[in-house]
Amino acid sequence: MALNVTDLRNGTFFKEGNNVLQVLTYEHVKMGRGSGTIKVKVRNVRSGSVTEKSFITGARVDEADVAKVKAQFLYRDGDSPAGGFNFMNPVSFEQFIIPAQVIGDQAKYLKDGLEVLLIVSGDEALGLELPMSLVYAISETGPGEKGNTVSNVFKEAVLDNGLVVKVPMFIGVGEKIKVDTRSGEYIERVK
User: Fold this and answer.
1) What's this model's pTM, rounded to 2 decimal places?
2) Which residues of the chain have pLDDT under 50?
3) How, if at all, do strands 37-44 and 19-29 pair?
């Protein structure tokens, strides 16, 4: 089914040849008398590459047959880059493996029991959608300094899943923090 480019919004999927693209940003530009231009920044779901595309108003693209399925992360098979990630369907309890290249950079946010949305087309997993933020415990960091709550001085901290994040000086070992999964940055301390 064809989709008008003016209907493309953040998170929408469409096909271009064999590639499935996800819209990251959408901008409608109208200059002078001519027809408008739709500029979108898209991510190739299979390769992970991000590009910008321009369409004239009224152009059409093919809608991708994509579904989002809930899955729970169980564990990773080996530490090699070719290893797979084991997930489970929380309803049927069916387990399946997704290759490391499909997960890509998002692997660093995975932890046991985490529920995610898998992006699938037919029987092929194209990627996954993480929650906007996740809570992790600090497993190691430098000494904390009381009273340093106003300054923007940061130190490195290793989280319980091995991810390294910059946190404020007052955060100590054992505390829980919220991390933005889009940028990998500290958001706030969780009580």
Assistant:
1) 0.67
2) none
3) antiparallel
